[in-house]
Specification:
single chain, alpha/beta, seven-stranded mixed sheet, four-stranded antiparallel sheet, 39% helix, globular, binds pyridoxal-5'-phosphate
């Protein structure tokens, strides 16, 4: 039986909330009242059989690609699923980074692909290393999946490494799926999309994590036009037609993206200062530190993470994501960019939980 659910998503929807919620991955909500938007222009129905042209143009322009390469989808979630469903058949071999965002693995397995893993090693700062891909790639490999920035660690993948991975994929006739939902959290000298590295590359993205407008579900895939057309055809079996009011508001968000991004940037940067101070003083955890990104993946040096996080939530009203959802049960992930006061208090409570109460041994 194929697995027809996601443990992580269910946990995130039902167990992650707390007064001091550090179990986030995206920035805080951008309120509609702050978006320069003329509500009288909102409409229910529109010409969007294969996506609303002004939205496809806005996505294409920002990414520097042809609008024929754009497939819109409900969030990066559905973009990832649609891309994989178009690229993979049951039994196909897919290589997915480890640790990984669980839904990428769940979606590939649901499609019936044979999932193999390549390591992003903590001791190497979770870098994307072509050597690790080379170790597991085979003539049967159809797809290689990476996140950039990496979820959970927020470590960026360098263009030379990505290029090498693309060349490896090319050598066996495979494609590379790069989930770039966190890429724009590199606020300075933001790298261009990996889409430009070759026709083998398929990119997914959305406005959810870095821009604070998750509710619009404005996601997309960038793919070579032939592949993009195939994805639109497959989508006729799934979502068929997008939600038009969402498309209109997404166009408005694109017109003011820099306002959305800057507002969140201030919070992320203030939070990172606090995070670095916390990591300096805490000897019970270690982490690969990054300059950018909305998440940090911490190793608990002693004790059982699930027990610790349960206690953190019950006694300290603070939540974080258990590492088991990234197949790293000795770790946990915290998120920045929502609210600096909340983040500061959450970190303080993690410190208290780490230092005042006895750690549970495994
Ligand atoms: C790597 C990655 N891809 C996709 C998603 C889902 O994004 P969206 O909210 O756009 O569906 C997440 C959410 O946490 C994520 O971490």
């Amino acid at each position: 039986m194929r697995q027809k659910h996601s443990d992580y998503m269910h946990w995130a929807k039902t167990q992650s909330k707390a007064r001091f919620n550090l179990a986030t991955s995206g920035v805080g909500s951008f309120p509609l009242r702050d978006l320069p938007y003329d509500g009288t222009k909102l409409e229910i129905n529109g010409d969007n059989s294969y996506g609303y042209v002004p939205l496809k143009r806005a996505i294409a322009e920002r990414a520097g690609v042809d609008p024929d390469c754009v497939v819109t989808a409900a969030g990066t979630s559905f973009a990832n699923y649609l891309a994989m469903a178009a690229l993979l058949d049951p039994g196909d071999e897919v290589l997915i980074e480890h640790p990984a965002y669980g839904l990428l693995v769940d979606a590939a397995r649901y499609i019936g692909a044979e999932v193999k893993r390549f390591a992003r090693r903590e001791e190497n700062g979770y870098a994307l290393e072509a050597e690790e891909v080379r170790r597991v790639i085979s003539p049967r490999t159809r797809l290689i999946v990476v996140t950039n920035l990496h979820n959970p660690s927020s470590v960026p993948a360098g263009e030379p490494d990505l290029r090498e991975v693309v060349e490896l994929a090319r050598s066996v006739g495979a494609r590379v799926l790069v989930d770039e939902v966190y890429l724009d959290a590199i606020y300075q000298d933001t790298p261009r999309s990996s889409f430009h590295l070759g026709p083998e590359v398929v990119v997914t993205n959305s406005l959810t994590k870095v821009y604070g407008v998750s509710g619009l579900r404005c996601g997309w895939i960038l793919a070579h036009p032939d592949l993009a057309r195939a994805m639109w055809q497959l989508n006729n079996l799934f979502a068929a037609t997008p939600v038009h009011p969402g498309e209109l508001m997404s166009v408005a968000a694109f017109e003011h993206l820099d306002i959305l991004r800057e507002q969140a940037r201030r919070v992320v940067e203030a939070d990172r200062v606090l995070l670095n101070e916390f990591l300096e003083r805490e000897s019970n955890v270690s982490a690969v530190r990054t300059r950018w990104g909305t998440t940090c993946f911490l190793r608990l040096l002693e004790g059982d993470v699930d027990g610790f996080l349960e206690r953190l939530r019950a006694e300290f009203e603070t939540s974080a994501v258990p590492g088991r959802f990234f197949e790293m049960p000795g770790h946990f992930r915290i998120g920045m960019g929502v609210n600096t006061e909340m983040f500061a208090e959450g970190l303080g409570r993690i410190s208290r939980a780490l230092n005042q109460a006895p750690l549970l041994l495994p």
